[in-house]
Amino acid sequence: MNDSTLPIYALIKRQASVNVGVGRCQGLRRMIGKRVQFDEETWEALSAVARDEGVTFQEMADEAFADYLKKHKRPVGLMASLKESVGEKSRTRRTKKT
Predict the structure, then answer these.
(1) How far apart are CA 39 and CA 15, in angstroms?
(2) Tell me, what DSSP letter sits at residue 37?
(3) Hey, where are the domains in the chain?
(4) Between the CA of residue 75 and those of 4, 7, 59, 72, 92, what are the distances in Å?
(5) Per-residue pLDDT tens for 54-64?
(6) Is-contact 75 33, C-beta < 8 A?
């Protein structure tokens, strides 16, 4: 049985990065885990998308949270924070010169 035929919950159990607690994934990057619960209908829909798209639950969660943070204009990481800070200062300076 290959990965594409396994149910999503079986794939999640096989991934160390999805375990609750602190783990390592994507090279040496430290990741913090958190347990989430879904109603059965939502879980089945997520499972179908993961199977159709050939992605893991972790990949779907990463994309969803990145989109959510972007929507609320919350930079992730030092470089993004600095870029956001510089952008805010340059916008403030432009408006004062008018």
Answers:
(1) 22
(2) -
(3) 3-96
(4) 34, 34, 19, 9, 19
(5) 999 999 999 99
(6) no
